[in-house]
Amino acid sequence: MDGHTTEIRFAATMAAFGHAFSELRRALDQTQLDEATRYQVELVFEEIVANILRHGSPGGATLAVRVELDVRDDRVLLTFVDNGVPFDPCSHPPRVLATALEAGGLGLGLVRRAASHLDYRRTPQHTNRLVVTVPAARSRAVG
Amino acid sequence: MEMHVKDVDGVVQIALVGRLDSPGVDQVETKFTARLVPAGANGVVDLSGVEFVGSLAIRMFISVGRALARKQKKLVLYAPRPLVNQVFESVSLNTIVPVAADYAAALAAVRG
Fold this sequence. Notes:
heterodimer; A: 5-stranded antiparallel β-sheet; B: 5 strands
């Protein structure tokens, strides 16, 4: 299905994360994305939301997260908005080797590999807004 | 997330089933670590039932693998699905925690 858009709002807690992930997967069930693209979309969702949970609120307040899934012909746009501390993933060096674990950034490295483009800005409303573009392929039609 | 455990000839065999995303790791990490590290047992982990892994799962495997290595024991993963294996390969997990094709290869690696 082209032009498929879904918005998911949830609190940045592990329980809500699980429910939001299920909601994302139900939305992806409605698309014709192939398995590999779908995996990359889920991986981006996993890593960005996990990062918000772990690092977005040093003071411990529960954050609000909004994720928009926009499935287009040749790409999938994932937009993440959260009210956590400013964090620009584009400004962090990519680290993809497991041996660089101690330095952090393993998850962001996976996001960079999955994405063709990342666009971050801090909004006037003091939220982080990150748009991740994942190149898309379609499952072949059967029959 | 399900975890099934058997002890066979001194090797702890663990089968993980489900999704190793953050909620999945949150459910299983304490049990997984507790089953392997305190006893200092060699472990082989069947990943054929795991649909998804993210970086937290990779961190869990590396953490347990390194803890076992300090006790001269090994952790070996086996039979990951192709998309899961692609994630492992993208971070060179095999340089720290061996990833085998099947159970026989995992057993050979853990005893080798």
